[in-house]
Amino acid sequence: YRLIRLSSPNLNYLIGLGAIVLYLNVIVLVIPTTNPEFAAVLCNFNPWLTSLGYSLCYGTILIKMIRVWLIFNKPLGLKATFLQDYAMVLFVLSLVVIDVVILGVYTLTEMVKGDLGVKLTPNREMPEEIIGPTAEIHENFLYECESKGRVVLYAVLFGYKGLLTVIALLLAFHTRKVKVKGLDDSKYIAASIYVTSIVLAVIIVSTYTLNDYVNAYPAVVGVGFLFGTTVILALVFTPRMVELYKDPEGDKIMIGMSSTLNRGSENEVIELRRRISELEKNLKQRSSSLISANSDTLPAECNGGDQRRYIEVESKLTRNDQPSSNGPHRNQKSRMFIQDTLTV
Hints:
- By secondary structure, this protein is mainly alpha-helical.
- It folds into three domains: 2-246, Rhopdopsin 7-helix transmembrane proteins (Up-down Bundle); 261-296; 298-344.
- The chain is built from eleven helices and four strands; from the N terminus they run H-H-H-H-H-E-E-E-E-H-H-H-H-H-H.
- The strands form two sheets. It has a two-stranded antiparallel ribbon.
- Strand 2 and strand 3 form a beta hairpin.
């Protein structure tokens, strides 16, 4: 299917993989445990899944927008080398490597300092409860991540990911007039960025305000991840599925562009047209000069149409004038035969 090939299916696999990672993050978030060691693993595993899933999803969206922008706004030299699937996949993987480096440095540093653990915190949602006929009062606690460098980690991660999101939004704005099916993702990407930004804002606020609530915090953050990830998948894949259903063979792909060329591209088109007209003019002059030069050597009996045919045959025989098994004078005999035929 041409429409599927145009939308870079290899990159869509990365978006699907990122969505799976974000869905796993929701599962990790709601796993109950009373073991402090296992609680510490789950607590510190959450930033890894969030960051890697976000990079896979939005890194792929960003490189797809860069591809569309380069197709309609940059010279052919950049497109030929940078727009291959392997180059775009390497770009997304480079973002994943950056996440691994940042999270790896953070994890090793906190392990050395001994701050990578959990602490007991009173459950504000249900601080105590009365149990049994003796009315025993039980205080409820929950495990909370204890890491002094977590604020710095979130600042670095959300800082550079926010920058990538802004770049993707700007590219979506600059490619909003693209009318090619399979490449007109600007409005869907802008909508997904808008929804995801709101969801991330809610998650960040909930992390520092609802962290002591054992039920409210997983509910708000989990629903936020589920909703944001599902919106990304719906906006990226649903329009393509609808278009594929309407046009399975891709015969109605409209390659219509309205005002997508920038000023530099317009100047390049004007310059190319000028050079083409000059080359056509030079070609006509050389053709007329060649005809006038060869007309002096033609037999006098040849009329105008025969002269032109003679010149064409003469040029063809000259290019093929090489010794053969029939003798070195084969082409000369052919010329004499053609001259006699034209004269008659």
